[in-house]
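Worked example 3 (structure in, sequence out).
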């Protein structure tokens, strides 16, 4: 049984000024004045005020880039994207996009791009692996050589030399807005950082590599891990200082990588499972896994995004799961495997690909 997902979206209302109700009374009042103003000035005032009232945030479909129907493609050729391998995407509560690539970090505010690399910022590496945004807008950037924090003005970088980390390779980041803390998964460990910058180190991940993480609405941490020695995956839940596990091989998913996790508005956890003989999306209900209806055309599953009653899955194509007959959408310009996804306030999907760059799909 598939749970119906519901979310509420923030909408922005735009109002248009009625010239008869605004400019008209002003002009009439000025005509009663002993001073006279040329009619051309009235026309100028009218144009300026109407233009200011109609100003709105630009939809990505209206910005420069390679446009093809509902698709827009940004790459090193037609935009300021530092690299065509897009590894991570996050969007803050002001609709600013943060795009991580193998060659640096891009900030997109409306149509203004700002690029951060080791040459232009204190980033420890230009290879971005993970991104997370706190409720105050602070951006956390995970790289292959350390972790950075940027509040819009100042930077702080953490490595094994000045923190509790024993490995500089950051695999995953997620922000817990309920408990106001950041969770960090490195190649060797799990770490939490609270709002007072107090760090805590966890050894319980043992020999498991953290591939994915998310936090549910109760503040419970969920991890997708893989043990390369035993060659098996697990989904782990951490709540109230206690761990529970979903042993994937025992549940019928041998040699499976839990590449991505997501939480619905009804607090249901979904996971993308991929392996030699496995390609599926499951819903975690109680102690069981329930498979979601999937389109046969979907392969190479890597990432998941939930939007109302839609389950979007990125892989060798963009696919919609959970329907009687799912749908696959082929990316333009040949496309490549999707490894990161985020949705903006307009309902546009921002897709990070392995070698095609940044792709925007307008769903409406």
């Amino acid at each position: 049984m598939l749970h119906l997902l519901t979310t509420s979206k923030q909408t922005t209302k735009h109002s248009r000024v009625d010239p008869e109700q605004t400019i008209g009374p002003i002009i009439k009042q000025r005509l009663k004045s002993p001073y006279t103003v040329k009619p051309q000035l009235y026309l100028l005032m009218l144009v300026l005020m109407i233009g200011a009232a109609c100003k709105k945030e630009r939809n990505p479909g209206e910005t420069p880039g390679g446009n093809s129907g509902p698709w827009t493609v940004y790459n090193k050729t037609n935009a300021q994207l530092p690299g065509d391998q897009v590894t991570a995407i996050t969007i803050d509560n002001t609709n600013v996009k943060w795009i991580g690539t193998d060659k640096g970090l891009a900030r997109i505010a409306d149509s203004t791009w700002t690029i951060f690399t080791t040459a232009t910022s204190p980033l420890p590496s230009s290879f971005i692996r993970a991104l997370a945004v706190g409720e105050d807008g602070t951006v956390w950037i995970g790289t292959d050589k350390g972790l950075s924090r940027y509040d819009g003005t100042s930077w702080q970088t953490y490595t094994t030399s000045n923190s509790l980390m024993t490995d500089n390779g950051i695999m995953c980041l997620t922000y817990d807005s309920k408990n106001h803390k950041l969770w960090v998964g490195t190649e060797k460990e799990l770490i939490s950082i609270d709002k007072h910058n107090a760090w805590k180190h966890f050894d319980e991940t043992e020999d498991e590599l953290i591939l994915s993480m998310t936090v549910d609405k109760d503040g419970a941490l969920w991890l997708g891990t893989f043990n390369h020695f035993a060659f098996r995956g697990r989904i782990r839940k951490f709540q109230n200082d206690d761990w529970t596990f979903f042993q994937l091989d025992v549940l019928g998913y041998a040699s499976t990588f839990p590449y991505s996790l997501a939480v619905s508005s009804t607090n249901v956890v979904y996971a993308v499972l991929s392996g030699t003989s496995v390609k599926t999306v499951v819903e975690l209900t109680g102690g069981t896994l329930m498979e979601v209806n999937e389109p046969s055309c979907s392969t190479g599953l890597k990432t998941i995004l939930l939007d109302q009653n839609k389950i979007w899955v990125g892989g060798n194509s963009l696919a919609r799961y959970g329907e009687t007959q799912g749908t696959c959408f082929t990316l333009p310009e040949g496309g490549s495997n999707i490894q990161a996804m985020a949705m903006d306030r307009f309902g546009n999907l921002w897709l990070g690909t392995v070698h095609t760059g940044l792709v925007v799909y307008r769903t409406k």
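Notes: Residues 1-55 have pLDDT under 50 and may be disordered. The longest helix spans residues 39-53.
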